Amino acid sequence: MSNLLGPLLYRDFRLFLTGHFISFTGSWIQTTALHWLIYDLNKSSSELGLYSLLTGLPGVAFTLFAGFLIDRISTKRLIQLVLVLSLIPPFIFIALIEMEKFNFWLFLIPGLIASFLSSIDMPTRQVLIGEIVPPRYLTQALSLQAFSFNSARMFGPLIAGVILAHSLVLCFWVNIISYLPFIIFTFMMKGGESPKGKQKRLTFNKEINAFFQFLLSRREILLLLLLVALFTVLATSIIILLPMIVHKHLNGYSKDFALLSSAVGIGAITGALIVFISRKPDSEIWQILKAHLLWTLGIMGLIFSKSFPIYFISLILIGMAFTHFYPVANAMIQRRSNSEHKGKVMSLFTVAFIGTAPLGQFFIGLLSEIIELKRLLLLVCLFLLVINLSIINILRKREKIYVP
């Protein structure tokens, strides 16, 4: 029974997982409403991609240094501070909407604040899991976190679709409320109190040099980070085209957009459960290959159909690809890291996983204004497969001689 329940045996992790799910459900409700709002300003996917790029890049830059902060400050105290400050952006969005200031550039202000806070929040959550769960349950914990995140990704857009039919501003109020349980739960946790990296207290320059030397000695980590970055830029970023698909190919509205967004969440939940159940150390490369296969099948469905049910199924396959890929890549990277550099490594993972998304979304959104949608999807699919399969083949060969 203990092997089956794994990290769920630990009270701190149960509190974390519950709060994580509630807060991210609220975040997806707000994100769905915001994406539709930005797109609806001028009916432009490139403008939505530009918004993601402008709000995301400053956060990406700070994420590169967030790991040094995480390694020096109590993880729990840091995440509590970030959660409280995360209430500010939705309040600003609410004020702008109530004053009817529907302006692209004004919406950048709360978007930038949220991006800055997220650059600390995401890697801190990853490190916190490692502090409240024993190492032998880390992969299971990451699978459950992916399940929680993607359950929120499914329910959030569905709830947003219902709310958007009646009120736009209510989506942002719901997001504010969703943070409160997580804040309370963090005060109930007993773990995550100890600051990291106290044993050496190197100067900043020496710490950077030591970190670079560590990365150079673990080339597999660099290859995995590159694989994650490319998957985000090309595979994940095609989701930015959903409003265009709904508007131009299905003649749909915000409710249809919310339903298709939830399909990605349904697929991601299914994928996370499959990875959790079939978790085997010697199957990690195969899981990553399977992720690319699932994503390719989903893209083919989007290319060769104009049917809403086929689009829905295709997006489920794409969602499954995401959770076949990211939790496995995350676990592979963490197992090749050490406690001294884990905060910094996970910051780089966050840059590759989340931070490169604005660049990818801007790039895909811009190309969508130049290249016909289905042709664009085909080109992206072919390019990703050629590059990433080459990297996977290099990893497969290196893994034969890797000794943890």
Structure commentary:
The chain is mainly alpha-helical and 404 residues long. The protein has one domain (2-194, 202-399): MFS general substrate transporter like domains (Growth Hormone, Chain: A), CATH 1.20.1250.20. The protein is 80% helix and 0% strand. The chain has 17 helices and no strands. It has helices at 2-5, 11-42, 45-70, 75-85, 88-98, 104-132, 138-164, 169-188, 204-217, 219-235, 242-249, 254-277, 284-303, 308-335, 342-355, 357-368, 373-399. Helix 5 packs antiparallel against helix 6 (104-132), helix 10 (219-235) packs parallel to helix 16 (357-368) and helix 14 packs antiparallel against helix 15 (342-355).
Low-confidence stretches: none
Q: What is the overall number of helices? A: 17
**Which value, in Å, is the CA radius of gyration?**
20 Å
The helix/strand class is mainly alpha
- β-sheet strand percentage: under 5%
Quick rundown:
The protein is an all-alpha fold. It contains 17 helices and no strands.
Q: What is the secondary structure topology, with strand pairs?
A:
Blueprint: H1 2-5, H2 11-42, H3 45-70, H4 75-85, H5 88-98, H6 104-132, H7 138-164, H8 169-188, H9 204-217, H10 219-235, H11 242-249, H12 254-277, H13 284-303, H14 308-335, H15 342-355, H16 357-368, H17 373-399
